[in-house]
Design brief:
Length: about 260
């Protein structure tokens, strides 16, 4: 079950979202509700939900600042303001959708259904990657010589640009091939898709950077191309079973979770 929280300061809106959204039918468990940005951040850190549904204008701190500081996999923003600056910040944070009040229940449910599907697909992809156990500093063993010139070019592109917000489209443009052609050749040559490889490469780089105590977790997150420190921490834990801070404290040679 996908887990979600709501962060909304308007009582009637909180209650409407709690009561009218068909959570169970969407495959979502609503595990918490907060009334301001500070308690929302605390709730997100405590519960580590898969989805945060939040307003932007909140007491304490705004919703986007809260998301930037929280271990959030995905978020849906609801707002009464069609503000381009807010939308641009939301895009940089990887927010899945930006819905304007008054909220149409069916539109919100359609958005959540699509997001649930994406999260489940990502979970399956992560399960595949976790099977590729790395050694030493690297958490994931990735092929570096795929035997295909296009796939090799894509890997070189990832190695040169992993610190920027790049995806399959940017790699295809660089290599002057179609996205579909690159996607097919890359999967055939490496056994994983382009996004899986990119995220795993970033995680491996982060694991190495965590050995340097001069770099903060936030700095490493940015250097490795993750949209927020919270998302980086959540993804890193999925691979290593440790948060970045725990991994740093225990050292790269000891990745088992505490108590294992």
């Amino acid at each position: 079950m996908i887990r979600a929280i709501i962060v909304e300061d308007e009582r009637y809106m909180r209650e409407e979202l709690e009561k009218t959204v068909r959570w169970a039918e969407l495959g979502i468990e609503l595990v918490g509700v907060a009334e301001d940005g500070v308690s929302g951040e605390r709730l997100a850190r405590e519960l580590e939900p898969d989805i945060v549904i939040t307003d932007i204008r909140l007491p304490g701190q705004d919703g986007l600042a809260m998301l930037a500081r929280s271990p959030v996999a995905a978020a849906v923003v609801i707002s009464g303001y069609s503000d381009f600056a807010f939308m641009r910040r939301a895009i940089r944070l990887g927010v899945y959708d930006y819905l304007l009040k008054p909220i149409d229940d069916r539109e919100l449910e359609a958005t959540l259904a699509a997001l649930v599907e994406r999260l489940r697909r990502e979970d399956q992809e992560l399960d595949l990657l976790r099977a590729l156990k790395g050694g030493g500093e690297e958490l994931v063993a990735l092929p570096r010589e795929p035997g295909n010139i296009v796939a090799a070019g894509a890997i070189a592109f990832i190695e040169a640009n992993y610190g920027r917000p790049v995806g399959l489209r940017e790699a295809a443009e660089e290599l002057r091939v179609s996205e579909g052609h690159l996607s097919r050749l890359f999967k055939e040559a490496t056994g994983v898709n382009y996004l899986q490889y990119l995220n795993a490469f970033r995680i491996n780089k982060a694991a190495i950077m965590l050995r340097d105590p001069r770099l903060s977790v936030s700095e490493i997150s940015e250097l490795c191309g993750f949209p927020t420190p919270g998302y980086f921490a959540k993804l890193f834990k999925r691979f290593s079973e440790l948060t970045p801070t725990q991994y740093r404290d225990r050292g790269p040679g000891s990745r088992a979770p505490a108590g294992a």
